[in-house]
Task: inverse folding
């Protein structure tokens, strides 16, 4: 039997964690829905967007051309077994940060729509989706103003009891990863090929 003091300490730690966790979900206006995560259910979102003076279809074709990523990105590799991509395709994201060992995450495609230029996947996690569901949506939308421009958007949202842990562990990491890739690599690459 654990001692009363130990139990009391655990209860105190639990209460402290609960207090921290309570205040950490993102504001409803800051979360974005994904196919299986409504705005109401989402615990958090980490996202990125960029505008390009280029046709939306051209930007889209670069974003989903995973086999060519190695030519312009050193921070992200996306490997799928077979192409063309379809719902149910399983792939691996290999994220590399300077001075750190590469990190691998497995994902499964849940939406791929080349007309609407939407790609969505869910993370394949070692816990059940009722405890934690993480989904990423990537989209390229044509802008009417200014004409000739489009916007690339990418966001991860998560839900479930373990989603609260993500708020103060991996949220910042995801955000920084998406930004490093987006600002420093995708933007440079798109601007170099459409210029
Ligand atoms: C999530 O949404 C997609 C597309 O709307 C669907 O195919 C899939 O079965 C849903 N459920 C899970 C758990 O991924």
Result:
């Amino acid at each position: 039997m654990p001692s009363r003091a130990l139990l009391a300490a655990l209860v105190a730690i639990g209460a402290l964690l609960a207090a921290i966790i309570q205040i950490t979900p993102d504001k409803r206006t800051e979360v974005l829905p994904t196919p299986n995560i409504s705005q109401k259910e989402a615990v958090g979102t980490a996202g990125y967007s960029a505008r390009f003076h280029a046709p939306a279809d051209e930007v889209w074709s670069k974003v989903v051309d995973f086999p060519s990523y190695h030519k312009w990105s050193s921070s992200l590799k996306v490997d799928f077994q077979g192409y063309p991509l379809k719902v149910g395709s399983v792939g691996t994201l290999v994220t590399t940060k300077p001075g750190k060992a590469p990190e691998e995450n497995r994902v499964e495609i849940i939406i791929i729509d080349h007309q609407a230029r939407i790609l969505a996947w869910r993370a394949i996690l070692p816990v059940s989706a009722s405890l934690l569901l993480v989904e990423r949506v990537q989209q390229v939308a044509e802008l009417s103003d200014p004409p000739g421009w489009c916007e690339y958007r990418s966001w991860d949202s998560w839900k479930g009891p373990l989603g609260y842990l993500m708020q103060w562990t991996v949220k910042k990491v995801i955000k920084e990863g998406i930004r490093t890739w987006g600002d420093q690599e995708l933007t440079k690459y798109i601007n170099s090929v459409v210029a």
Summary: The first helix runs from residue 4 to 22.
